[in-house]
Amino acid sequence: MIAGHLQSLGCELHLQRFFLRPYMQPIAGLFFLLAGALCFVLASKRRYWAALAVALVIPAVYVAEFEFNVPIVTWAGGRDGVNIVADFLPADNPIEKHITFSAHYDSKTDIFDHEQRKPIYGFAPIAMGCLLAASMLGIVSSGRKWGPGAHRVCLALACVGVSGLVMLALAFGGGLLVPAGRQSPGARDDASAVAVLLATADQIAADHQQLKRTAVRFVFFGGEEVNMQGSSAYSRSLAGSGEGFDRGVVVNCEFIGGEEPFCYWESSGTFLSKFRASDEAVQLYQDALTSLGLAPAISAGSIFDDTGRLLAAGFRAVTVGHADPVSSAGYHSQSDSARQVVPAKLQETKSVFLRMITMTDRTKESL
Question: N or C: which end of the chain has fewer CB within 10 A?
C-alpha cells in the first residue's frame, strides 16, 4: 500500500530488499533460556568447566546478535525484508541540498510494555554475570576442595541467572502468547508517523515546484521492531555512496500524534552503544517549530530505534515525535490504538516537516 501510493505520486521509487529475521527476538530468547538451563544442569552436576563454556557463549551471542546484527542463532525463518525509498527531486534546478524523513512500518505485540521491559533488559547482563560467577566459583571451590556450602552458593547464583533469562525470554518472545484479539494495533508505533510522511509526500507532489534546490527522500523501514534490521541494511548501502542523502539531515519519526508535547531524543543506539543526535538536525527541527509559533521540542532522553543505526553510520540524524519522559504511553500492546492519536497533532507535524523542507531549501550553506 505504501509503495503503491508513493508510486502514484510520480516520485522515484526504490524497493531495497534485505535478509530479514522476523523471529529474531523469540528465537534468541529461547536460546538464552535453554543455554541458561543447560548451564544450571552442568553446574548442579559439578561440571563447572562445561558450565563456564556455556556461560561464556550466552553473552557472546547476545552481543553478536543485538549489537552487531550478526545472525548466530536467529537465521531460522528468515525471508526478504523491504525498505521503501521514495525521492522527490527539484524539477528544473540542480540538486544542492538533501533531507530525509523516515519511519518504520512494522509493529509487534509484547507481553510487557516499554516500562516493564526496562528492568528486565537491565537485569539481563547481571543474570549472565551470575552464571559466569557460579561456574568460576565452582571451578575454584573444586580446586581448593571447599565444602558443600560453596556448591550451594554456585547453584543459588545459577538459579538467579536462569530466572533472569526466563524473564528475558518472555520479554523477547512473550508477544507470541498474546491472543489475536489483543494484539497491538500499532497506531502510534508507528502507523501515525507513516501517515504523516505520506501526507507530506502528497503535499510535495501537489506543489512540486516548491523544491528549488533540495531533494527530499522518504524512507519506510522494515524490521525496526526486530533490532532495526531495515535501517541497518539501509545504512550499510547508503554510507559513502555519494548520493548526497548520506550527507543531509535525516529526521526519523516515532510516537507521532499524541497528547504529549513535541520532543526529540538526545541519543539512540543499541544496548551497548549510544550515539548523540545530530545538533544540526535538532536545530533545524527547533527552528521549524519556532517559525510556526509552536513551543520548542523537549528532550525525551534516549531511545532504542532506527536512528541509532543511522548515527552509527555517520548520518546527521535525530528522532522526533510526541512524548512525555515523565509518563510514558503504552506501546506494543492493545492500548496503542487510534484512540491515542490526536488528528490535530498529525496536521501540526506535517506542517513542521514542510517547513523544515522550505528552510533547508532556502539556506545558503548546505545542511
Answer: N
Q: Any idea of the CA torsion for 35, 47, 148, 34, to the nearest 10 degrees? A: 10
Statement: the pTM of the whole predicted model exceeds 0.90: yes
Distance CA(336)–CA(76), nearest Å, equals 29
Sheet holding 79-88, edge to edge: 12-20, 79-88, 214-221, 97-104, 249-254, 316-322, 262-265, 298-299
Q: Domains in the chain, start-ordered, CATH in brackets?
A: 2-21+79-108+184-362 (3.40.630.10), 24-74+113-180 (no CATH)
Cα(147)–Cα(209) distance, rounded to whole angstroms? 82
Task: Answer whether 25's CB lies under 8 Å from 271's CB.
Answer: no
User: Could you identify the residue written with the cell 560467577?
Assistant: 133
End-to-end Cα separation, the chain, in angstroms? 32
Strands 249-254 and 214-221: unpaired
186 and 336 Cβ atoms separated by less than 8 Å: yes
Q: Alpha carbon of 324 to those of 30, 195, 261, 264, 269: distances in Å?
A: 33, 21, 7, 10, 20
| pLDDT per residue of the chain (367 residues) written in tens, 0 to 9 | 999 999 999 999 999 999 999 999 999 999 999 999 999 999 999 999 999 999 999 999 999 999 998 999 999 889 999 999 999 999 878 899 999 999 999 999 999 887 788 899 999 999 999 999 999 999 999 878 777 889 999 999 999 999 999 999 999 999 999 998 899 999 999 999 999 999 999 999 998 777 889 999 999 999 999 999 999 999 999 876 768 899 999 999 999 999 999 999 999 998 788 999 999 999 999 999 999 999 999 999 999 999 999 999 999 999 999 998 877 677 899 999 999 999 999 999 999 999 999 999 887 644 4
DSSP structure class, residue 258: S
Strands 79-88 and 12-20: antiparallel
| Torsions phi, psi for 232 (to 5 deg) | -65, -45
Please tell me the distance from the alpha carbon of residue 270 to that of residue 227, in angstroms, as a whole number: 8
